[in-house]
Amino acid sequence: MKIPLKYGVNPHQNNAYISNASDDLKILNGTPGYINFLDALTAWQLVMELSDATGKPAAASFKHVSPAGAAIAKPLSKEFITAQFLGDRELSPVATAYARARGGDRMCSFGDALAVSHKVDESLALLLKSEVSDLIIAPGYDAKALEILKNKKSGGYIILQMDPNYQPPDNEQRQLYGFSFEQDRNTTAITANLFKGADQDITETMLVATTALKYAQSNSVCVAYDGQVIGLGAGQQSRIHCTRLACDKADKWMLQFHPKVQSLAFKKGLKKTDKANVVDQYLLWHELSDSEQKDLASNLQELPAPISRDEKLDWVNTFSDLCLSSDAYIPFRDNIDRAARSNVRVIAHPGGSVRDELVKEACEEHTITLLETGLRCFLH
């Protein structure tokens, strides 16, 4: 099978195609490009592995070959529905999985590639209809769902179908600058056995966080809560920068449930993406210029008092059982100190650093449970 692509990584890179000996991947709609397939095939692996590990429908929202969010299906709270501007619609399990995956980081999920582990139903299609998204990959589609999605983006929405029974070769290859690379594919599964001693809820959340890391460009650190990613720092050269980025995102995620944010009254006519930008700006009020503050106020019927730093810290501390996973060992305690500020209570990393004892001591100081998995999961 040889599939010609719209173009390569950039529009000026022509003669682009992908090939495979099987016909397990089908294009049902649209014209995918190089990056579309990189996102789709990486996200597909994540959701299938995560669903296998948890027994629940899984979804991932990908941008630039890393997950912006990932989650398993769970009922949505009223506060989550308000924070994500979902209205009063009823959502199926697979639709809740995507709502939670996209809701982990609405800003980064803008124009995403969506992967789900289960058949796409009308509930998910109607949810996706109003979101800015570039493609979906799934094992199948209900007839009504497929009809809805084929009309998205003026008929150009990319719809891919993958056979869930497809098995890739054990050996993988790539070429760079005329040199060929080969290695065994990373078939080591992220399972509950990696998190011995943790209770079921923590284990499930760690499965989400660590599986997301397995399919994120390294270095990466992930913060997760209640079975969904709420902050991922991917592709940074320094682990503390990964941790800061992941925790900053997690803080913003938690603050969207603060009463002041939940009560924001938007001006009529604002789209979801505009509302998300308003919330983001409101949370950064003290960092905005005068003109930015004025612009923010113009999008609200009434501007509540900004949330102070102490209020933010107090609110973050109302969330329990936050989990942080690192795709390689944590080398310095500064990562632990930053995680503690976001009220992370459980940390998982492979271990193996010469400073492991110092990291353990830092966790004990902050009353953080440290799990050593012994498994590094880099992706490059």
Task: Lay out the secondary structure.
Layout: E1 2-4, E2 17-19, E3 25-29, H1 34-54, E4 58-63, E5 66-72, H2 78-83, H3 93-103, E6 112-116, H4 122-129, E7 133-138, H5 143-150, E8 158-162, E9 171-176, E10 179-184, H6 200-214, E11 220-225, E12 228-234, H7 239-255, H8 259-262, E13 265-266, H9 272-283, H10 290-298, E14 300-302, H11 309-316, E15 322-326, H12 334-341, E16 344-349, H13 356-365, E17 369-372
Parallel strand pairs: 6-7, 7-8, 15-16, 16-17
Antiparallel strand pairs: 1-2, 3-8, 4-5, 4-6, 9-10, 11-12, 11-15, 13-14
Features of the shown structure:
single chain, 380 residues, alpha/beta, Cytidine Deaminase, domain 2, Helix Hairpins, five-stranded mixed sheet, 17 strands, globular
Please provide a brief summary of the model.
The protein is an alpha/beta fold and 380 residues long.
